Amino acid sequence: MALKLSPIPKLVLKRLAIGVLTLIVVSAVIFWAVELLPGSIATEVLGQSATPETIAAFNAQFGLNDPPLWRYVTWLGNAVQGDFGQSLVTRRPITDLIGDRAFNTFFLAAYAALIAVPMSILLGLIAALYRGSLLDRWISSSTLAVISFPEFFVAYILILIFAVQLGWFPSLAGVTPAMSLGERLYVSFLPALTMVLIVTAHMMRMTRAAIVNLLALPYIEMAELKGMKRWWVIAIHALPNAVAPIVTVVALNLAYLIVGVVLVEVVFVYPGLGQLLVDSVAKRDMPVVQAACLIFAATYILLNLVADVIGILSNPRLLHPR
Amino acid sequence: MTKLLEIRDLWIEGRSGDDWHKIVKGVNLDLARGEVLGLIGESGAGKSTLGLTAMGHVRPGCRIAGGSIRFDGQELVGASAQVLRHLRGRRIAYVAQSSAAAFNPAWRLIRQHCEAPVRHGVMPRAQAEAEAVRLYAEMRLPDPDQIGFRFPHQVSGGQLQRAMTAMAMACKPDLIIFDEPTTALDVTTQIEVLAAIRDIVRNHGAAAIYITHDLAVVAQMADRVKVLLKGEEVEDAPVREMLAHPREAYTRSLWAVREFQPAPRGPAPAGPPLLQIDAVDASYGTQKVLDNVSLAVPRGRTVAVVGESGSGKSTTARVVMGLLSPTTGKVTFDGAVLPTTVGGRPRKLLQRMQMIHQMADTALNPRQRIREVLGRPLEFYLGLKGRAKEARIRELLTEIELDPDRFIERLPGELSGGQKQRVCIARALAAEPELIICDEVTSALDQLVAEGILRLLDRIQRERGISYLFITHDLATVRAIADHVVVMQHGRVVEQGDKARIFSPQHEAYTDLLLSSVPEMDPDWLTQVLEQRRAAG
């Protein structure tokens, strides 16, 4: 058998190129969307009493008089180097402003993911293993019930039970950089739990569906006719072939954990990117809004890219060409 | 001698909607140690279902409604999952029809091979792997030391089928169920797999149930044959006895297609051929699939293109239909060069050549009633409307021997496989074509049904003088219907000529190989062919 170059590097590079292209398109959309907002940024920030002179000075200081295309290119060029410019309100570099917040958001997402991903895959496997049983129906319907509520509602219910009535956890998750890991985990437990409940159903149902799809295939029947136990058939024969769809839905949900936390952060007054985004929109601090959106978009694209690559790697036909 | 397997009055039911209908109806089956039993019958006869119950397995949607299955004295009906698991893979093994689908694509062959012996605790992994290599060698797989470390997609179909047989032998089972193990293979591959399976079963003294619809194959493999029809036993006899003196009319009818010999049609009419393919090359991407293919189809005659999968016979049809443009060469129809793409051909030209596909199932729109299926080409090509169209649809249905009153309102889902293929024929006829391309039109059908289709095609040809370009891998079909035969291999025409000439001895090595690989009814055929080939070197 002649040694052939694996097609994998080429496929991965192609996906990477598509990812970068998507990010550029998204950055343009973010930039122009903010441009399109009505009203002048200067009057919004400086207030009604601003004189024409102070407005002109403000516009000059932040380069708002330059042509939009030029401002987009410089903004993007600086952002690539980690410089998102200055906040219009606090006049501080945005990178400083965002650093702690982004860390907090990623910390919370990781916290929720570490609980949610193993739990939902396990629940999905169990539901597939006992397909059609009472247990299967119970898992499916209870997870479905949880996502049917809006996340802020779930959050308030959890606060009501665990913070107000039982008093086990604080209702405000005000983490500070000075906290130890244990304190952080304790303080942010309720927001993490809220997010776990929100993303579990989707991942669990997808895992179950992917496995159940495979169970009708001849090689699954073959494994059963070799006298293999049911859980072995599912874990060894079905699961490896279901990696691609499961990873895709996991990536989507991880992205949601980072991007979709805005409401949860607001409810728990958690100092993350989402809350910063909401504050900045209220204050018309557009450079901060743009920076936060760009980070969200990049996370989303990166996670999907990773899922794509894992999907490619899980295909033995691509990994081991003839 | 005690029986290894004893099935008594077994009833199996399958669910369709809310109803349970009977699939296996009170069948008895006995199997002695080391005996090979052939189970034959057409699709829907219940042979696979019966074979699987010997492992205590029923497919989802089926259930055992009554009877008893005793394996080595142990009752399997109602046995616990643990008891069944303990037998499966260890004492009873299964070889599936499609090895490409029955091997898990995610694992190397040897890992799947060793699964049963290791998990059942029969032997440690190292020993199981050594045994695997030995079995691969016994199954005459190339490079037995290394082949196990490949993934299923890296191995050819015939090799994969042999690897699966080796896998079934891994625990030295007492009984092996072979479920149509060579049906998906080409004839030249099939003969080698058959020989390897037969030898390994004999050498290990295993008993086997060999399920197939091909009586000639079962004649080579089995000691005894049981014929099933619609879930009931028709006849059970030692193989030589059944071949020499079949008791039941149904058993005799099973090789009917081999007897279908239409009256000779005489020489082709003078004048230029209807379709002429001249030195055509074609490629899919960079891969060349047709290499200098030339053939001619005379008016009112049948040209059969035979070859194995990948020989380029279907690609030839695609080029003629304008679905694939040739890179060089030309195709002439009635003296005029054909535009290479179907989009470049005027409607009048499209009308003159029609196609019938292998899978009538997927060639018919499941939401269209037969009236619409046949009405559409009548309107499109002939401009028929209203009452004239309706009358013509009824004529067509009568011509394909389906009662118009009963069938005109039906959906394809309400027809049998043979009836669907008849409707496809009628749809092609509706355009009043001069040439019909038949792509494996009988391959998916049972032999009796296939014979009916061939008779119909023959009658239509005599009445209307249509030419057929008949694509098939089945030499029995070629023998029945062709006037002229084109043998293809690797995208090239190996040989072509009159049917009588092609089917007489002494020609191209590949044609010889192909012809001599078609199983015959004689139970000694396999042994003799292999000896002849060995003698010839």
UniProtKB/TrEMBL annotation, chain A:
Any Pfam family the entry gives: BPD_transp_1
Organism: Gemmobacter aquatilis
GO cellular component, one term: plasma membrane
Membrane topology annotation: Multi-pass membrane protein
PANTHER family per record: DIPEPTIDE TRANSPORT SYSTEM PERMEASE PROTEIN DPPB-RELATED
Cellular compartment(s): Cell membrane
Domain ABC transmembrane type-1: 102-307
Protein name (Swiss-Prot/TrEMBL): Peptide/nickel transport system permease protein
Entry keywords, A to Z: Cell membrane, Membrane, Transmembrane, Transmembrane helix, Transport
Spans through the membrane: 12-34, 106-130, 142-165, 185-204, 231-250, 256-277, 289-313
Family membership: Belongs to the binding-protein-dependent transport system permease family.
Alphabetical list of PROSITE patterns matching this protein: ABC_TM1
BP GO annotations: transmembrane transport
Source domain of life: Bacteria
UniProtKB/TrEMBL annotation, chain B:
Gene3D superfamilies per record: P-loop containing nucleotide triphosphate hydrolases (3.40.50.300)
Keywords assigned by UniProt, alphabetized: ATP-binding, Cell membrane, Membrane, Nucleotide-binding, Transport
Protein name (Swiss-Prot/TrEMBL): Peptide/nickel transport system ATP-binding protein
Subcellular location(s) of the protein: Cell inner membrane
A Pfam family annotated for this UniProt entry: ABC_tran
NCBIfam families, sorted: PRK10419.1
Protein family according to the UniProt entry: Belongs to the ABC transporter superfamily.
Molecular function in Gene Ontology: ATP binding; ATP hydrolysis activity
Membrane topology per record: Peripheral membrane protein
An annotated GO BP: peptide transport
Residues covered by the ABC transporter domain: 5-255, 275-515
Gene Ontology CC terms: plasma membrane
